[in-house]
Every structure is written in structure tokens, then in C-alpha cells.
Write a structure and sequence with these properties.
The chain is an alpha/beta fold. It has 12 helices and 11 strands. It has a 7-stranded parallel sheet, sandwiched between helices. The longest helix has 25 residues. This is NAD-dependent epimerase/dehydratase family protein.
Length: 340
């Protein structure tokens, strides 16, 4: 399915009632799984190794041990097919997050083994098991890592990934586009911006700690645009996509963000307001800050703080029938309350 076309409402398989989920123990999955269950879906959690009590807190949920997906994908056999029997849909959230690896070729091999190959193996197994629908969590970085003023990314933007992580996700997307017609699988690809929510990871967690301790933050002179996506909004879209799949054999891709696109200092101010703290923003020439972070081996942090990464949500709002339930400020407030 072309992302330029409207998403058919209920034109594909019927809304999923039994949903298989990978990555339920991860940052997104820990929030998403109970929400989907509360909406009346029965979940089958596909775990590397099942442990007692994993599904105890979610009524009607069962856990299936499938082993390491990067290994299972090499020789799928019957393991994945059996795990997916009786499911209406598969939500694939598991994968290797972006981590610094010095050798780019080695990194790409590793990320493809954890992100690309398992995604395609799961798609094949799902179709063999009679699953009609798949949702794949990609990343908005498949479009690139920065935007120019007035040129935001959107669901319509071409794939132009840089870095091993984004390349592995883009490879998985392209593989799904090839497989979906052959398998008759309805595929929805979600490409979230940087996700914020309870128990955040990486830079947002570090920013929260700095604001809480009253540390000076040299971001006051930065003039950029950064898109984020609340965990509640991402989960809401996944639920919406489960109820509104594309036609069988088609792919719909959605690049997602909150409606608001603040600058870095404005994001820190919103974060401070959510925490009931006034952040200590101090001026520093962005070029000097970038140089200092790069010399300290934190070039990726410099990029995420100083450069723009803006997502235009208009195609999603116009075609999907979905709107984000929470504003950025409300999402940050809930994140801060969860951490208290």
C-alpha cells in the first residue's frame, strides 16, 4: 500500500482479538502489553526464555518461549509457527536498540541479525500459522538523522537511513514490502520519533536527572526543532492499527510524533514544568557545545541536542483516522509522575 493513499477503514482483515507480541519486556512493550489487554485482546507474549510470573499481571495472557530471535531466524523450523498458531495479529516490538559499535561493518552485520532477519522470519512464520496481520516497529531514523528548516520528514518521505541501526530497520521495511504480497499479510509499519514515557531511557532520563539536581544545562542558545512521541500516543496508534489494517498483501507505513515540535531548550522547559522544577538553562554557542561533545566521544548526543529532527504529522492525521490522545506536555507530566 502506498503511504500516499488513505488507509482503508476495515478494508482488510477483521480487528485482531488474539495478538502475539514480541518485546513485551522492553521499554515500549512493558507499557503497550497491558493496555492492549485492557482493551479486550488476548495476548501471546513471545519471549526469549519464559520465566514464572511473566504474564501474571495481565489477565488472559500466556507466554511462549521462542529462544533468541537472532538465532531462531536462521533456522525457523516449527518454533515460530507453533507459537503463532491461533493468533490474529503479530506486533513485533523486539529488536536491538542503537548502541555505539566502533566498526561500522561489524555493527551492520549485528543489527541485521537482530533487527532485519528476525522481522522477515516472523512474517513468514506468521503467514504459515494463519496470522493475517503484522505490525512492525521501525524507526523514524529510516528517513535520516536530521532535517533542514521547513523540510520535515513525514510518512511520505523516502528512506535514506544512515548508521547501522537505521539501515537494519530500513532493510526490514523493504523486506516486508517484498514479502507482504507473496504472503497475503496485511502489514503496518510504525516509525516512532524518540519515545518518552514512564522509566525513560538514554538522553531523556539523563535530562530528567540533570533538571532534578539543578545542574546547569548549556542549551539556551540552541535554536532547532525536535520531534518526540509519547509512549501513550504510540500505544494508541498501535491499537488503532490493529483495528484498521490495510488490505491483505499490502503495506502501510506511518511516521509518528507528538503534535508539538519544540526546540531543545523548550523541551527542557516543558520537562522542568512536568517535574515541578525550573531548569538551569545557560547560553553556550552551539558550535562550541558540538565541538566539546564530539571531542568527548558524544557526537550522537551533540546531534540529538543541536540539530533539528522534525516530523510532519499531517499525512497521518489526514489518512489514518487517528489523532494523538495526549499533548507533549501532558505526556511529559505523566512520565514525571510515574517516576516520583
Amino acid at each position: 500500500m502506498n503511504a500516499n493513499a488513505p488507509a482503508p477503514r476495515h478494508a482488510g482483515p477483521r480487528p485482531a482479538r488474539v495478538v502475539a507480541l514480541t518485546g513485551a519486556s522492553g521499554f515500549i512493550g512493558r507499557f503497550c502489553a497491558p493496555v492492549l489487554a485492557e482493551q479486550g485482546r488476548r495476548l501471546v507474549l513471545l519471549h526469549r526464555a519464559a520465566t514464572p510470573g511473566q504474564a501474571a499481571s495481565i489477565a488472559g495472557t500466556r507466554v511462549v518461549e521462542i529462544g533468541d530471535l537472532s538465532l531462531t531466524a536462521r533456522e525457523p523450523g516449527e518454533t515460530l509457527i507453533e507459537a503463532l498458531h491461533g493468533c490474529d495479529a503479530l506486533v513485533h516490538l523486539a529488536g536491538r536498540a542503537h548502541r555505539a559499535i566502533s566498526d561500522e561493518a561489524e555493527a551492520l552485520t549485528l543489527y541485521r541479525a537482530h533487527n532485519t532477519a528476525p522481522t522477515l522470519a516472523l512474517a513468514r512464520a506468521a503467514a504459515e500459522a494463519g496470522v493475517r496481520q503484522m505490525i512492525f516497529a521501525s524507526t523514524s531514523y529510516v528517513h535520516g538523522h536530521l532535517t533542514q528548516p521547513g523540510q520535515p520528514f513525514s510518512s511520505d518521505s523516502p528512506l535514506a537511513p544512515t548508521g547501522a541501526y537505521a539501515l537494519s530497520k530500513a532493510d526490514a521495511e523493504e523486506g516486508l514490502r517484498r514479502l507482504a504480497p507473496e504472503l497475503g499479510l496485511a502489514v503496518s509499519i510504525v516509525r516512532p520519533a524518540v519515545v518518552h514515557g514512564p522509566n525513560p531511557t538514554a538522553n531523556i532520563r539523563a535530562l530528567m536527572g540533570a533538571v532534578r539536581r539543578g545542574l546547569p544545562l548549556p542549551f539556551a542558545s540552541i535554536d532547532n526543532c525536535r520531534s518526540f512521541l509519547g509512549l501513550e500516543n504510540l500505544t494508541s496508534f498501535i491499537a488503532h492499527a490493529l483495528d484498521n489494517p490495510p488490505p491483505a498483501g499490502m503495506v502501510a507505513a506511518w511516521t509518528l510524533a507528538d503534535a508539538q515540535t519544540p526546540s531543545t531548550p523548550d523541551f527542557v522547559r516543558l520537562l522542568g514544568a512536568a517535574m515541578g522544577r525550573k531548569p538551569r538553562l545557560v547560553p553556550c554557542p552551539p558550535a562550541l557545545l558540538r565541538r566539546a561533545l564530539t571531542m568527548a566521544g558524544r557526537g550522537g548526543m551533540a546531534e540529538s541536542l543541536i540539530d533539528s529532527f522534525e516530523i510532519d504529522m499531517n499525512p497521518v492525521l489526514a489518512r489514518s483516522g487517528w489523532t494523538p490522545p495526549l499533548s507533549l506536555a501532558e505526556g511529559l507530566r505523566r512520565m514525571a509522575m510515574a517516576g516520583d
